Amino acid sequence: MDIIVLKPGCTDDDIRHVVKRLESKGLKVHVSKGTERTIIGVIGDTSKISEDEENAIRAIEVVENVMRIIKPYKLASREFHKEDTVIDVNGKQIGGKQIQVIAGPCSVENRSILLHIAEKVKEAGATFLRGGAFKPRTSPYSFQGLGEEGLQILKEASQQTGLPVVTEVMDPRDVEIVSRYADILQIGARNMQNFRLLLEVGQTDKPVLLKRGLSGTIKEWLMAAEYIMSRGNHKVILCERGIRTFETATRNTLDLSAVPVLKKLTHLPVIVDPSHGVGKWDLVLPMARAAVAAGADGLMIEVHSNPEEALSDGEQSIKPDLFKQLIHECRRVAEAIGREL
Protein backbone atom coordinates (compact mmCIF):
# COMPACT_ATOMS: atom_id res chain seq x y z
CA MET A 1 0.00 0.00 0.00
CA ASP A 2 2.41 2.64 -1.27
CA ILE A 3 0.20 4.67 -3.60
CA ILE A 4 -3.48 5.50 -3.15
CA VAL A 5 -5.27 6.89 -6.19
CA LEU A 6 -8.39 8.93 -5.47
CA LYS A 7 -11.35 9.27 -7.80
CA PRO A 8 -11.80 12.42 -9.92
CA GLY A 9 -13.75 15.14 -8.18
CA CYS A 10 -12.69 14.27 -4.64
CA THR A 11 -12.84 17.17 -2.20
CA ASP A 12 -10.29 18.46 0.29
CA ASP A 13 -12.40 16.88 3.05
CA ASP A 14 -12.20 13.53 1.24
CA ILE A 15 -8.41 13.82 1.05
CA ARG A 16 -8.14 14.75 4.73
CA HIS A 17 -10.26 11.73 5.66
CA VAL A 18 -7.92 9.31 3.85
CA VAL A 19 -4.82 11.05 5.22
CA LYS A 20 -6.16 10.82 8.77
CA ARG A 21 -6.74 7.07 8.41
CA LEU A 22 -3.17 6.56 7.19
CA GLU A 23 -1.62 8.73 9.88
CA SER A 24 -3.51 6.75 12.53
CA LYS A 25 -1.40 3.76 11.40
CA GLY A 26 1.81 5.67 12.11
CA LEU A 27 2.44 6.48 8.44
CA LYS A 28 3.31 9.78 6.79
CA VAL A 29 1.85 10.92 3.49
CA HIS A 30 2.56 13.16 0.52
CA VAL A 31 -0.40 14.40 -1.51
CA SER A 32 0.15 15.03 -5.23
CA LYS A 33 -2.69 16.69 -7.13
CA GLY A 34 -2.45 16.02 -10.87
CA THR A 35 -4.59 17.30 -13.70
CA GLU A 36 -6.89 14.26 -13.55
CA ARG A 37 -6.15 12.37 -10.35
CA THR A 38 -5.06 13.02 -6.78
CA ILE A 39 -2.40 10.59 -5.60
CA ILE A 40 -1.42 9.99 -2.00
CA GLY A 41 2.07 8.62 -1.51
CA VAL A 42 2.47 6.60 1.69
CA ILE A 43 5.80 7.09 3.49
CA GLY A 44 7.00 4.58 6.04
CA ASP A 45 7.17 0.81 6.51
CA THR A 46 4.02 -0.25 4.68
CA SER A 47 4.95 -3.92 5.02
CA LYS A 48 3.41 -3.79 8.49
CA ILE A 49 -0.01 -2.98 7.03
CA SER A 50 -2.14 -6.13 7.03
CA GLU A 51 -4.31 -7.23 4.11
CA ASP A 52 -7.45 -6.42 6.12
CA GLU A 53 -6.18 -2.90 6.86
CA GLU A 54 -5.36 -2.39 3.19
CA ASN A 55 -8.84 -3.58 2.17
CA ALA A 56 -10.35 -1.13 4.65
CA ILE A 57 -8.57 1.69 2.80
CA ARG A 58 -9.86 0.31 -0.52
CA ALA A 59 -13.39 0.45 0.89
CA ILE A 60 -13.30 4.24 1.33
CA GLU A 61 -15.72 5.66 -1.22
CA VAL A 62 -13.31 8.13 -2.86
CA VAL A 63 -10.46 5.60 -3.24
CA GLU A 64 -10.11 4.37 -6.81
CA ASN A 65 -7.07 2.14 -6.44
CA VAL A 66 -4.39 1.06 -3.95
CA MET A 67 -1.02 0.01 -5.36
CA ARG A 68 2.31 -1.27 -4.15
CA ILE A 69 5.53 0.21 -5.51
CA ILE A 70 8.13 -2.47 -5.98
CA LYS A 71 11.02 -0.01 -6.26
CA PRO A 72 12.59 1.01 -2.94
CA TYR A 73 12.59 4.68 -3.96
CA LYS A 74 8.91 5.56 -3.71
CA LEU A 75 8.70 9.35 -3.79
CA ALA A 76 11.30 9.60 -6.56
CA SER A 77 9.59 6.91 -8.64
CA ARG A 78 7.61 7.73 -11.76
CA GLU A 79 5.00 5.26 -10.49
CA PHE A 80 4.28 7.74 -7.72
CA HIS A 81 4.39 10.86 -9.89
CA LYS A 82 3.64 10.23 -13.58
CA GLU A 83 4.20 13.79 -14.79
CA ASP A 84 7.66 15.34 -14.99
CA THR A 85 8.51 17.51 -12.01
CA VAL A 86 9.31 21.09 -12.98
CA ILE A 87 11.17 23.15 -10.36
CA ASP A 88 10.81 26.91 -10.43
CA VAL A 89 13.83 28.89 -9.26
CA ASN A 90 13.30 32.65 -9.38
CA GLY A 91 11.14 32.30 -12.47
CA LYS A 92 13.49 29.87 -14.25
CA GLN A 93 12.07 26.39 -14.69
CA ILE A 94 14.22 23.29 -14.45
CA GLY A 95 12.61 20.24 -16.00
CA GLY A 96 10.41 21.97 -18.56
CA LYS A 97 10.92 22.67 -22.25
CA GLN A 98 13.68 25.19 -21.55
CA ILE A 99 17.16 23.69 -21.01
CA GLN A 100 18.93 25.61 -18.25
CA VAL A 101 22.68 26.29 -18.23
CA ILE A 102 24.60 26.60 -14.95
CA ALA A 103 28.05 28.13 -15.48
CA GLY A 104 30.94 29.61 -13.55
CA PRO A 105 34.28 28.73 -11.98
CA CYS A 106 34.97 25.67 -9.87
CA SER A 107 35.89 27.84 -6.90
CA VAL A 108 35.20 31.41 -5.83
CA GLU A 109 38.80 32.67 -5.80
CA ASN A 110 38.27 36.40 -5.31
CA ARG A 111 35.70 39.11 -5.98
CA SER A 112 37.09 40.57 -9.21
CA ILE A 113 37.55 37.20 -10.94
CA LEU A 114 34.08 35.95 -10.05
CA LEU A 115 32.29 39.16 -11.03
CA HIS A 116 34.11 39.15 -14.37
CA ILE A 117 33.23 35.52 -15.10
CA ALA A 118 29.63 36.04 -13.98
CA GLU A 119 29.18 38.90 -16.45
CA LYS A 120 30.74 36.86 -19.26
CA VAL A 121 28.62 33.75 -18.77
CA LYS A 122 25.45 35.85 -18.42
CA GLU A 123 26.30 37.63 -21.68
CA ALA A 124 26.83 34.28 -23.44
CA GLY A 125 23.49 32.82 -22.31
CA ALA A 126 23.95 31.13 -18.94
CA THR A 127 20.84 31.10 -16.75
CA PHE A 128 22.45 30.16 -13.40
CA LEU A 129 25.79 30.99 -11.75
CA ARG A 130 27.90 28.31 -10.09
CA GLY A 131 30.93 28.60 -7.84
CA GLY A 132 32.28 26.76 -4.83
CA ALA A 133 32.66 28.57 -1.50
CA PHE A 134 33.32 25.31 0.36
CA LYS A 135 35.43 22.89 -1.70
CA PRO A 136 35.89 19.15 -1.03
CA ARG A 137 39.42 18.38 -2.21
CA THR A 138 41.27 15.09 -2.37
CA SER A 139 44.30 16.67 -0.69
CA PRO A 140 43.92 18.53 2.62
CA TYR A 141 46.62 20.94 1.39
CA SER A 142 44.66 22.08 -1.69
CA PHE A 143 42.57 25.26 -1.79
CA GLN A 144 39.44 24.61 0.31
CA GLY A 145 37.40 27.67 -0.65
CA LEU A 146 36.71 31.06 0.95
CA GLY A 147 33.76 29.98 3.11
CA GLU A 148 31.23 32.68 3.95
CA GLU A 149 33.29 35.33 2.16
CA GLY A 150 32.87 33.29 -1.01
CA LEU A 151 29.11 33.07 -0.43
CA GLN A 152 28.95 36.85 -0.07
CA ILE A 153 30.80 37.31 -3.36
CA LEU A 154 28.42 34.88 -5.08
CA LYS A 155 25.44 36.82 -3.76
CA GLU A 156 26.91 40.10 -5.04
CA ALA A 157 27.48 38.56 -8.49
CA SER A 158 23.91 37.25 -8.48
CA GLN A 159 22.53 40.69 -7.66
CA GLN A 160 24.57 42.28 -10.45
CA THR A 161 23.69 39.72 -13.15
CA GLY A 162 20.29 38.41 -12.06
CA LEU A 163 21.62 34.85 -12.21
CA PRO A 164 20.45 32.56 -9.37
CA VAL A 165 23.31 30.91 -7.45
CA VAL A 166 24.16 27.20 -7.25
CA THR A 167 26.79 26.32 -4.66
CA GLU A 168 27.86 23.27 -2.68
CA VAL A 169 27.13 22.52 0.95
CA MET A 170 29.42 19.91 2.50
CA ASP A 171 28.40 19.70 6.14
CA PRO A 172 25.02 19.56 7.93
CA ARG A 173 26.31 22.39 10.15
CA ASP A 174 26.70 24.65 7.10
CA VAL A 175 23.22 24.16 5.61
CA GLU A 176 21.72 27.16 7.37
CA ILE A 177 24.43 29.63 6.32
CA VAL A 178 24.66 28.37 2.72
CA SER A 179 20.86 28.57 2.43
CA ARG A 180 21.04 32.28 3.25
CA TYR A 181 23.03 32.98 0.09
CA ALA A 182 22.28 30.18 -2.39
CA ASP A 183 19.22 29.61 -4.58
CA ILE A 184 20.09 25.93 -5.12
CA LEU A 185 22.02 23.75 -2.65
CA GLN A 186 24.45 21.39 -4.35
CA ILE A 187 25.34 18.00 -2.85
CA GLY A 188 28.66 16.96 -4.38
CA ALA A 189 29.58 13.52 -5.65
CA ARG A 190 31.59 12.69 -2.53
CA ASN A 191 28.57 13.44 -0.34
CA MET A 192 25.91 11.55 -2.32
CA GLN A 193 25.62 9.05 0.53
CA ASN A 194 26.25 11.45 3.41
CA PHE A 195 22.84 10.61 4.83
CA ARG A 196 22.95 13.14 7.68
CA LEU A 197 23.55 15.90 5.13
CA LEU A 198 20.80 14.60 2.83
CA LEU A 199 18.30 14.60 5.69
CA GLU A 200 19.35 18.12 6.69
CA VAL A 201 18.83 19.64 3.22
CA GLY A 202 15.58 17.67 3.07
CA GLN A 203 14.25 19.94 5.79
CA THR A 204 14.92 23.14 3.84
CA ASP A 205 12.71 24.71 1.19
CA LYS A 206 15.66 25.17 -1.19
CA PRO A 207 15.98 23.12 -4.40
CA VAL A 208 18.76 20.53 -4.08
CA LEU A 209 21.10 19.57 -6.92
CA LEU A 210 22.22 16.02 -6.15
CA LYS A 211 25.33 14.86 -7.97
CA ARG A 212 25.92 11.19 -8.68
CA GLY A 213 28.60 9.56 -6.54
CA LEU A 214 31.93 8.50 -8.02
CA SER A 215 30.88 4.85 -8.01
CA GLY A 216 27.17 5.25 -7.37
CA THR A 217 24.65 3.09 -9.18
CA ILE A 218 21.46 4.66 -10.46
CA LYS A 219 19.49 2.86 -7.76
CA GLU A 220 21.81 4.18 -5.03
CA TRP A 221 21.55 7.66 -6.53
CA LEU A 222 17.74 7.57 -6.48
CA MET A 223 17.77 6.24 -2.92
CA ALA A 224 19.88 9.26 -1.99
CA ALA A 225 17.21 11.47 -3.55
CA GLU A 226 14.63 9.55 -1.53
CA TYR A 227 16.43 10.53 1.68
CA ILE A 228 15.98 14.21 0.80
CA MET A 229 12.37 13.78 -0.29
CA SER A 230 11.45 11.73 2.78
CA ARG A 231 11.96 14.86 4.88
CA GLY A 232 9.50 16.85 2.79
CA ASN A 233 11.72 18.56 0.20
CA HIS A 234 10.64 17.28 -3.22
CA LYS A 235 12.63 19.86 -5.19
CA VAL A 236 15.48 17.54 -6.17
CA ILE A 237 17.54 17.88 -9.35
CA LEU A 238 19.74 14.95 -10.38
CA CYS A 239 23.16 15.67 -11.92
CA GLU A 240 25.16 13.11 -13.87
CA ARG A 241 28.86 14.03 -13.56
CA GLY A 242 30.69 10.92 -14.60
CA ILE A 243 31.56 7.72 -12.74
CA ARG A 244 34.82 5.99 -11.94
CA THR A 245 35.73 3.19 -14.36
CA PHE A 246 38.94 1.50 -15.55
CA GLU A 247 39.33 4.12 -18.31
CA THR A 248 42.15 6.64 -17.84
CA ALA A 249 41.83 8.74 -21.01
CA THR A 250 39.30 10.96 -19.24
CA ARG A 251 38.93 12.03 -15.62
CA ASN A 252 35.69 10.04 -15.29
CA THR A 253 33.38 8.17 -17.66
CA LEU A 254 30.40 10.39 -18.45
CA ASP A 255 27.39 8.05 -18.39
CA LEU A 256 24.97 9.73 -20.79
CA SER A 257 22.84 6.57 -20.88
CA ALA A 258 21.84 7.55 -17.34
CA VAL A 259 19.75 10.41 -18.74
CA PRO A 260 17.17 8.32 -20.65
CA VAL A 261 17.28 5.62 -17.97
CA LEU A 262 16.39 8.18 -15.29
CA LYS A 263 13.68 9.66 -17.48
CA LYS A 264 11.99 6.23 -17.39
CA LEU A 265 12.47 5.63 -13.68
CA THR A 266 11.88 9.03 -12.10
CA HIS A 267 9.94 12.25 -12.55
CA LEU A 268 12.81 14.39 -11.25
CA PRO A 269 14.76 16.76 -13.57
CA VAL A 270 18.12 15.49 -14.83
CA ILE A 271 21.09 17.68 -15.75
CA VAL A 272 24.61 16.80 -16.93
CA ASP A 273 28.02 18.13 -15.86
CA PRO A 274 30.38 17.33 -18.77
CA SER A 275 33.22 19.32 -17.17
CA HIS A 276 33.71 16.83 -14.33
CA GLY A 277 32.58 14.01 -16.58
CA VAL A 278 35.59 14.27 -18.89
CA GLY A 279 38.02 16.48 -16.98
CA LYS A 280 39.51 17.95 -20.17
CA TRP A 281 38.43 21.34 -21.50
CA ASP A 282 38.52 20.38 -25.20
CA LEU A 283 36.05 17.52 -24.64
CA VAL A 284 33.46 19.58 -22.77
CA LEU A 285 31.72 21.08 -25.81
CA PRO A 286 31.07 17.81 -27.72
CA MET A 287 29.84 16.09 -24.57
CA ALA A 288 27.57 19.03 -23.78
CA ARG A 289 26.01 18.68 -27.24
CA ALA A 290 25.55 14.96 -26.63
CA ALA A 291 23.94 15.60 -23.24
CA VAL A 292 21.34 17.89 -24.80
CA ALA A 293 20.65 15.30 -27.50
CA ALA A 294 20.23 12.60 -24.82
CA GLY A 295 17.43 14.61 -23.19
CA ALA A 296 19.15 16.46 -20.32
CA ASP A 297 17.15 19.25 -18.70
CA GLY A 298 20.26 21.32 -18.11
CA LEU A 299 24.03 21.61 -18.26
CA MET A 300 26.61 22.52 -15.62
CA ILE A 301 29.75 23.99 -17.18
CA GLU A 302 32.95 25.19 -15.52
CA VAL A 303 34.11 28.49 -17.01
CA HIS A 304 37.22 30.48 -16.08
CA SER A 305 38.76 33.53 -17.74
CA ASN A 306 42.28 32.20 -17.11
CA PRO A 307 42.17 28.42 -16.53
CA GLU A 308 45.93 28.03 -16.18
CA GLU A 309 45.80 30.26 -13.10
CA ALA A 310 42.67 28.63 -11.61
CA LEU A 311 43.03 27.40 -8.04
CA SER A 312 41.05 24.24 -8.85
CA ASP A 313 39.98 22.25 -11.93
CA GLY A 314 41.72 24.51 -14.45
CA GLU A 315 42.27 21.61 -16.85
CA GLN A 316 38.52 21.12 -17.36
CA SER A 317 37.48 24.79 -17.35
CA ILE A 318 36.68 26.48 -20.65
CA LYS A 319 37.22 30.14 -21.48
CA PRO A 320 34.28 32.52 -21.99
CA ASP A 321 34.66 32.58 -25.79
CA LEU A 322 34.42 28.78 -26.02
CA PHE A 323 31.48 28.84 -23.61
CA LYS A 324 29.72 31.23 -25.98
CA GLN A 325 30.32 28.77 -28.82
CA LEU A 326 29.03 25.92 -26.63
CA ILE A 327 25.77 27.79 -26.01
CA HIS A 328 25.37 28.43 -29.75
CA GLU A 329 25.94 24.81 -30.76
CA CYS A 330 23.85 23.31 -27.95
CA ARG A 331 21.01 25.69 -28.83
CA ARG A 332 20.92 24.24 -32.35
CA VAL A 333 20.78 20.69 -30.94
CA ALA A 334 17.98 21.70 -28.58
CA GLU A 335 15.95 23.16 -31.44
CA ALA A 336 16.40 19.93 -33.41
CA ILE A 337 14.74 17.90 -30.64
CA GLY A 338 11.94 20.39 -29.95
CA ARG A 339 13.40 22.14 -26.92
CA GLU A 340 14.79 25.57 -26.14
CA LEU A 341 18.10 26.76 -24.74
What does this structure look like?
With 341 residues, this protein is α/β, with parallel strands linked by helices. The chain has two domains: 3-67, Phospho-2-dehydro-3-deoxyheptonate aldolase, domain 1 (Alpha-Beta Plaits, 2-Layer Sandwich); 87-336, Aldolase class I (TIM Barrel), CATH 3.20.20.70. It has eleven helices and 14 strands. Helix 3 links the parallel strand 7 (100-104) and strand 8. Helix 3 packs parallel to helix 4 (148-161), helix 3 (111-124) packs parallel to helix 11 and helix 6 crosses helix 7. The longest helix has 17 residues, at 320-336. The radius of gyration is 21 Å and the shape is elongated. The model has no long low-confidence stretch (mean pLDDT 92).
Strand order of the largest sheet: 7-8-9-10-11-12-13-14
Low-confidence stretches: none
> Which CATH first-tier class of the largest domain would you pick?
Alpha Beta
Which architecture of the largest domain would the CATH scheme give at its second level? Alpha-Beta Barrel
Overall mean pLDDT = 92
Number of distinct helices: 11
How many distinct folded domains?
2
CATH homologous superfamily grouping of the largest domain: Aldolase class I
User: Major β-sheet, in short?
Assistant: 8 strands, parallel, barrel
